[in-house]
Amino acid sequence: MGWRAVVILSASLGLAACAGSVPPPTAQLGASAQAIQQAERAGALQHAPAEFQSAREKLAAADAAMREDERTQARRLAEQAQADAELATVRSQRATAQQAASAVRTLANPNAGLPNAGLPNAGMPGAGMPGAAGRAPAASATAPLAPSGMSGTSTWDSPRTLEGTP
């Protein structure tokens, strides 16, 4: 009966060891790698380089922990890598949205950065000068009737009929 007890004890210890072991965090490692790729596509290298680099380093450390069969440490590092990558993505998206909003504001109010931007007709010649607001430029009001360089009488000065005779 002694050998049966040893087999049963060994089997129960083996089952207990399997029940207590941590499964490999392969799904978490994959999710972290995807989050890092998404952060890169969102522009994290430009807008959130510190968070992006941290995510990459933690994922590399998680891979190293997996090679050493430190599954709990690998899972923890992979989760941190995913969190850093998601933060980098959000910061990148925020920066991109702010740039787009700024561009829209500039398009909506192109004179916003000019010194007389708040005055009516701010972009017009003579704008900002006393009495100039609301007036058209003087050049458009007094256009010549005849081409320059012509002298003497011109048919341009006289009214024409439909047939072309004065």
Written account of the structure:
The chain has 166 residues and is mostly helical. The chain contains six helices and no strands. It has helices at residues 2-20, 26-41, 44-47, 49-67, 71-108, 138-141. The longest helix is centred in the middle third of the chain and has 38 residues, at 71-108. Mean pLDDT is 76; it is low at 139-144.
Distance between the termini: 138 Å
For the largest beta-sheet, the strand count, sense and barrel status come to: none
Number of helices: 6
Overall pLDDT: 76
Helical residue percent band: 55-70%
Q: What is the count of β-strands? A: 0
User: Mind telling me the C-alpha Rg?
Assistant: 39 Å
Order of helices and strands: HHHHHH
Mass-distribution shape: rod-shaped
Strand content of the residues, in percent? under 5%
Low-confidence stretches: 139-144
Class computed from helices, strands and strand pairing: mainly alpha
